[in-house]
Design brief:
Blueprint (H helix, E strand, L loop, with lengths): L1 E2 L8 E8 L1 H13 L4 E5 L7 H11 L4 E7 L1 E6 L9 E4 L5 H16 L11 H26 L1
Parallel strand pairs: 2-3, 2-4
Antiparallel strand pairs: 1-3, 4-5, 5-6
């Protein structure tokens, strides 16, 4: 693994397999912009198992957050979510650098418990729905777990 962090420091895990370099660069810049370290690992995975790879990487991350990137598909996962329900699973055009940077920023903001930056154009509603769905899932699990504890 390489990145902007030493081996034992908490970081966001970023797993790549032939990523669109322009998008990867912006995602990493977004993490750095928010002051969050990352570990970058080049590995081999398929589009079919990307969500699983991202989930496993989030489980291994001391921050509980991981991003998997293959070509122009990006999966952002948080270890508090169910494996098959990532926080974000999106395909970007290779020139959507602003959105890629915002994904990196939002991964960092997830850890810092800050409001997410929103996308500026048509994909914004899709992104809001994905994030809303993930948050509702976490809250439902939290409430069910608390009911069982009583």
């Amino acid at each position: 693994m390489i990145g902007n962090v030493n081996k034992n420091r908490p970081s966001v895990n970023v797993c790549t397999d032939n990523p669109a370099e322009s998008l990867l660069k912006e995602i990493l810049a977004g993490l750095e912009e928010e002051g969050i370290p990352y570990k970058l690992e080049d590995m081999s995975f398929t589009l079919d198992n990307m969500v699983k790879i991202a989930y496993e990487a989030s489980e291994e991350s001391r921050m509980g957050i991981a991003i998997a990137i293959k070509n122009n598909r990006i999966v952002l996962h948080y270890n508090k979510l169910k494996e098959n329900h990532p926080l974000m699973d999106i395909r970007l055009d290779y020139n959507e650098k602003n959105k890629a940077r915002e994904i990196g920023c939002n991964a960092a903001r997830l850890y810092k418990i800050m409001p997410f930056k929103s996308f500026e154009d048509n994909g914004e509603e899709d992104m809001r729905n994905q994030v809303k769905s993930a948050v509702i899932s976490v809250l439902k699990d939290f409430n069910l777990n608390n009911l069982n504890i009583s």
